[in-house]
Amino acid sequence: MDPDDEPDHDPRDGPDDRDGARGGRGRAVVVGASSAIGAAVAHRLHRGGWSVEAWGRDPASWTRSLPPCVRRRVDVTRREDVEEALERGRGPLTTLVYAAGLFDWADTDRADPGTWDELFEVNLTAAARVARLAAPALLRAAPSSLVLLGSTAAHRAFAHNAAYVASKHGLLGLADAVRADLSAAGVAVSIVNPGMVAAGASLLSDRGREDPQSLLRADDVAEAVHYAAAAPPHVCVSRLDLLPRSG
């Protein structure tokens, strides 16, 4: 795992708060922060007053703009990476956002089995692993929140991406079951389900190529995550679905 690294300040975040003024809401870990959506979530939580810790497994992606924060190279498919990163964290873990994910455009009879194995590992198995290993820290810091980034595929089926649909259905079940276990102790568990976003695999769809402006933005998803994470202690945003207005 790489040492902590401080990125350059981004003007979207306002004044650079390296003097410790931030962090009033505690520490927020954003898993998958090297993606467009993950980076947008990191920015939004930073602006909302969290001390952000960004996790990602692709060193080349760390050139993406992030707010001032601790960055850790973490492969969430490796239990030891997750355990070490959680142990090294500083301050109460009040929010954890799981935004890591893979996508595959392929019919079932033509899909690569290895790609499906990796997709399930990142989208569901690793999400469960991170939730399990972070649960004690979230309980200690309660009231706290766990936000999982799902998809409209969590409750609908689409052609050409059976593995993705199945993984997101599983993630919805994970969110509901973890909420049942932890909510009474003060941990709010939310799942945010966006439709097509103008980032990543959605840009390869017919609509993404023909009319990307009609899709959701990464910042839209980040606002929804912030809404869930910033809810009052007596409120749990259990499920939040986002769709482009045009359907």
TrEMBL record:
Ketoreductase domain span: 26-200
Species per Swiss-Prot/TrEMBL record: Kineococcus aurantiacus
Biological classification of the source: Bacteria, Bacillati, Actinomycetota, Actinomycetes, Kineosporiales
Organism domain of life: Bacteria
Gene3D superfamilies documented for this protein: NAD(P)-binding Rossmann-like Domain
InterPro entries from the UniProt entry: KR_dom, NAD(P)-bd_dom_sf, Sc_DH/Rdtase_CS, SDR_fam
Protein name, entry field: NADP-dependent 3-hydroxy acid dehydrogenase YdfG
Keyword line: Oxidoreductase
Region feature (Disordered): 1-25
Basic and acidic residues composition-biased segments: 9-22
Sample GO molecular function, one term: oxidoreductase activity
SMART domains for this protein: PKS_KR
Pfam families recorded: adh_short
CDD domains: SDR_c
GO CC annotation terms, alphabetical: membrane
Family under the similarity heading: Belongs to the short-chain dehydrogenases/reductases (SDR) family.
KW Cell division (keyword) present: no
